[in-house]
Design brief:
single chain, alpha/beta, 8-stranded mixed beta sheet, binds aspartic acid
Length: 328
């Protein structure tokens, strides 16, 4: 009996076409539907019994919170069904890490959930979509993937939805977890896990399952030489309930931004101190207490935003938010 794997398609370059086979950009996105994706990889029929549905068909930078919530709801609904053994999600690569982390925190099941995509359009010479989809189905069908949290499968590497980030604008080996490392490899159809994520996820997450219609607004403020608080003020004026600072170095920022963020925090807006550096931790300093800030730990700003939006559905208390940032 083959495992039952359900594919949820959301769009992205994996669903794109361009007339010139050598072109890797300038494609028309959102033209290949879920059945065409499945039909392009006949070999998956030998691995799993496949069903599929189109959740949306957009480039991933055009996804909305509304779609994310709908996707999480659908994944939980499908995984609660005894007939479904695992889920594969096809997704654009640009914001794939945000969706992967969001689902890692909101999926309420041990069953495998694997997200994949492609860096080259479906029509390209050496397109990577078909092999990535094949490997994603193999991974979702493998027993070793159970309880590992939401996984990202591209380029034969198994990454954790928590740690993975897109590192390269065009290269097929773009998805990496530069400091934490891959969870393992998917080679010749076999999953080889070499580590587990030690952060809370899926069934251990206090955010799964999530039953809200919307998430509180959280904005990211990027810090740079000779900046001022205009972006902080804009976020506050737009009604942000949280702000993540992509600050410099170990979360350091100019006096103007710092004062703007202290003011925001005094107004009850949660402020997370992150970094624009690709590597390293943001650990607590005495200043966090004084200013009312929350250190981001090892989360990059876009993932810190996902966690803060979820955390703010439960609490606005700084100590509690700090605990959440330590555990997830
Ligand atoms: N270039 C992106 C991709 O690889 C577009 C997107 O994120 O949808 O899919």
């Amino acid at each position: 009996m083959l495992p039952n794997i359900h594919i949820l398609a959301t769009g992205g370059t994996i669903s794109a076409k361009v007339a010139d086979k050598t072109a890797m950009t300038g494609y028309t996105a959102s033209v290949v539907g879920v059945q065409d994706l499945i039909d392009a990889v006949p070999a998956i029929a030998g691995i799993a019994s496949i069903s599929g549905e189109q959740v949306t068909n957009v480039l991933s930078h055009c996804l909305t919170i509304d779609i994310l919530l709908r996707l999480a709801g659908r994944v939980n609904e499908l995984l609660a069904d005894d007939r479904i053994d695992g889920i594969v999600i096809t997704h654009g690569t640009n914001t794939l890490e945000e969706t992967a982390y969001f689902l890692n925190l909101t999926v309420n099941s041990h069953k495998p959930v694997v997200i994949t995509g492609a860096m080259r359009p479906s029509t390209a010479i050496s397109a990577d979509g078909p092999i990535n989809l094949l490997n994603a189905v193999r991974l979702a069908a493998s027993k070793e993937s159970r309880g590992q949290g939401v996984l990202v499968m591209l380029n034969e590497k198994i990454n954790s939805g928590r740690d993975v980030t897109k590192t390269n604008t065009m290269a097929v080996e773009t998805f990496q977890a530069p400091e934490m490392g891959y969870l393992g490899y998917l080679q010749e159809g076999q999953a080889y896990f070499s580590r587990r994520s030690s952060y809370r996820h899926t069934v251990d997450s206090e955010f799964s399952p999530l039953s809200v219609d919307n998430l509180p607004r959280v904005d990211i403020v990027y810090c740079y030489l000779d900046d001022d608080a205009f972006a902080v003020n804009a976020a506050v004026a737009a009604g942000a309930r949280g702000i993540v600072a992509a600050a410099t170095g170990h979360g350091m920022m100019s006096d103007k931004i710092r004062n703007g963020l202290i003011k925001a925090s005094q107004q009850g807006i949660a402020v997370v101190r992150g970094s624009r550096c690709p590597f390293g931790l943001i650990t607590a300093t005495g200043d966090d207490e004084t200013c009312g800030f929350i250190p981001a730990g090892s989360l990059n700003p876009q993932k810190a935003r996902i966690l803060l939006m979820l955390a703010l559905t439960r609490t606005t208390e700084r100590q509690e938010l700090t605990r959440i940032f330590q555990q997830y």
